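[step 3/7] fold_predict: job queued, chain A
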Amino acid sequence: MTDARHSSRVLSLYPRRYRASHGAEILQMYRDAGEGASAAAGRLEQLDIAAHALRVRTHTGSSHRAGRFLVAAAPYALAAAGSIAAAGLTTAVADAVRGGSAAGMDLLGAAVCVTVLAAGAMACLGRWSMSRVLGALSLVALLAGVQGSAWLIPLLALVVVMPAAVVPGRIDRRLASAYAVITWLPSLYAALSGDADFFLGMIQQLGPVMLLIAIRTAAPGVRPRHILAILVAGAPWATAAAGSPIGAAVVITALAMAWVVGRLSRRRLPVTT
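[step 4/7] structure written:
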């Protein structure tokens, strides 16, 4: 049976005004869900309420602007994380096959990369709850000191804190999948050829970023947050060349495109029948 003391404690995590307006409704839903449930199920329900309360306090819920941006950014952030993880595994396997060291990657680091790729696979199948769980496991491991790219931490964090009530749109999921593959291909070539110096600088990775921005801009109902989400996913490669004129031009062009699309979207009138 639901413990009213625990439910009231979880309910107190909400802001005072929100609790005053919706507290009774949330508490009733909590009691209905916990009626006849096991102790473990009751704890999970408390965690769900606590997570929702945190989103309300931080304005990252699905009804908030930040929450909507997280939904748009999650597939691209996960795609970038998957590309980085796949590149690390590809290089490690290629080095091991050639009889060298596995690029300094230990078994735990390889396990994190595999988990990140599994999170991406779950996202492609539309199972975002499982994807977030796998992303959270990878994030905890990286924060605990497991070897891996430092960029995986903020990218996975974007996925983990994404509001649970909504899922990214189909267009973003498909474009993100293509983005993951395209940005990984140069790493595959470098690993197979053994040419560790095969890099085209920022164009190698930011070229796909600009291509996706152009495609996403042409899609109906586009908003600046989708374009900025793609740009955020390109941060691991954009920052490496942030001091060069080409890198600066790529970032400025993307931001300018986001601003123009935002202006145009606000001028569009809804179609009425």
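[step 5/7] annotate
The longest helix spans residues 65-97.
The chain has twelve helices and no strands.
exit 0
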